[in-house]
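Quick one, T. Sequence first:
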Amino acid sequence: MSGFKPSHRSLALLAVAVAVAAGTAFASTAPASEPDEPARATAPSGPVTSSLKGWGRMDYPDPGHDIQVTVDAHAVFKGVGWSKPDTSWGTFRVYHRMPGADGRPETVNWGDFEVDCLTTGGPTATVTGRIVGTGGDAGGWDDYLKRHVRMGVSFYVGAGKGSGPSRIGLSGGTEAGEPLLSTCMAPAADAKVIKGGYHLTDRTPAR
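Structure tokens:
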């Protein structure tokens, strides 16, 4: 009795099946590549603190105006991954001297704010607070005080060669009938600091 002789087609199909089976076995036994782990091992796992201190005079399109911002703000975050602080405190002052028009003397306004949010990231920071006191001889911010307006200031703190000048951004106060500025919000820091400077500490382990 003659033995069974497979056709060339059968042999070809068998070879494909063996190759697929081998490939499947290889794929199933090869270790799966694990996603990159975030670099958390070296990051502080507990609360971290930030602070911003200093005084600066900001550039203004009209050189007759003198705008200064003084700040002493602090915050505690639950950890490095938290974008908003758990607690914030401190004060900041916005001072504005304006030239007089039509021969009148110059006028001054300033407002003191109680910090309700400080956020930081690298060389940048945002501070907001509600006005708690005013002064000067113009009385332009007395209405802000009555309404307990919130204002925001953003900072870019340049440090070292190539970092560029430090900058400030001011939100201004909202007018009557407008929504109150949200905490931790301020415009981009677009105005150069032309005198003075700031010291920023970004998220160091709480002591």
